[in-house]
Amino acid sequence: MPNIISIIVTFNPNISILEILLTTLSPQVDNIIIVDNGTSNDILKNIQTILPSNGNIIIKNYNSGIASAINTGIVEAKIRLASHVIIFDQDSIPTPNMIEELISAAVNKKNLAAIGPCYVDKRQDNPPPFVSTQGLRLIRHVYNGNDATVPVDYLISSGCLIPMEAFDKVGHMREDLFIDYVDIEWGLRAKSLGLQSYGLFSAHMEHNLGDKPFNFFGKNIPIHSPQRHYYHFRNAILLYKEPWINNNWKFVDFSRLILKYTFYSIFTKPQLKHLYMMSLGIFHGLINKSGKLNK
């Protein structure tokens, strides 16, 4: 029988949403490990009061970044002899059978890196597709009624089920990225080592991507803070320097990065702040500066 341990990274979470996550998740896993990344004491006390009987919390007292927090959870899960870990953001809500769906689909997958669900952002018209690159094109995979799973280049970390043996082959998350591109880097690294990630159309969860979306000619575009855009652009540049990442993926992602830079510079307020932080991120990526941004 699989021993499934969930890792939830928290940082000043909405307690009501976190409680829904814990309540929904608790019957689906053997243990829950919350890794708290510096939440204020009053909110931290509230987290401790809503922990389920199979829940535990590791308090870091400072924001170590998403990658470091996930790695802390992985180490603890290994001590607890987990067969799989499943990672969640603090505001994601799985359906009651999501993990069962993921485990069932994972059984027959050889060289599995990870398998993840479709996620629905209620602020969007449609759930985002799974993505992969083919040649110099980005392929957007949507459910066509036939294929239950689809091979992908990477998955978002939230809702991602990973066999522990994959970490033995691939290693842990890259901590110097701090936040953003952490899941992308790990997925691409796994793929370069011969492991494959999959998206599962029949598994679902709720997940909000970014802050309040910007409506652009009827299309809702996810928007992040200027500081988050700093990490996005810096870490993209850092990844482009990696020799083990395929050049076609670099070309496709860089093409999208140019579009994002243009769009956020013109349409995202305050424009000058976003422009400055994106440009700083690019500069720091070029000079190999990583880790947490010191304000």
Can you describe what's shown?
It is built from 9 helices and 13 strands. By secondary structure, it is of the alpha/beta class. The protein folds into 2 domains: 4-206, Spore Coat Polysaccharide Biosynthesis Protein SpsA, Chain A (Alpha-Beta Complex); 214-286. The strands form 4 sheets. A 5-stranded mixed sheet has the order 3-2-1-4-10, with helices on both faces. Strands 5, 6, 9 and 11 form a 4-stranded mixed sheet that branches. The chain is globular and about 50 Å long. The model has no long low-confidence stretch (mean pLDDT 93).
Give the overall shape, derived from the CA principal axes: globular
As a percent range, the share of strand residues is 15-25%
- Average pLDDT confidence is 93
* Distance, first to last CA: 48 Å
- Main beta sheet: 5 strands, mixed
Total DSSP helices: 9
Keywords:
295 residues, alpha/beta, Spore Coat Polysaccharide Biosynthesis Protein SpsA, Chain A, 2 domains, five-stranded mixed beta sheet, four-stranded mixed beta sheet, 9 helices, 13 strands, 38% helix
Task: Itemize the secondary structure elements and their pairings.
Blueprint: E1 4-10, H1 15-25, E2 31-36, H2 41-49, E3 55-59, H3 66-79, E4 84-89, E5 93-94, H4 98-106, E6 112-120, E7 130-134, E8 137-141, E9 149-152, E10 160-163, H5 164-170, H6 182-192, E11 196-206, E12 214-216, E13 219-221, H7 226-240, H8 247-267, H9 271-286
Parallel strand pairs: 1-2, 1-4, 2-3, 6-11
Antiparallel strand pairs: 4-10, 5-11, 7-8, 9-11, 12-13
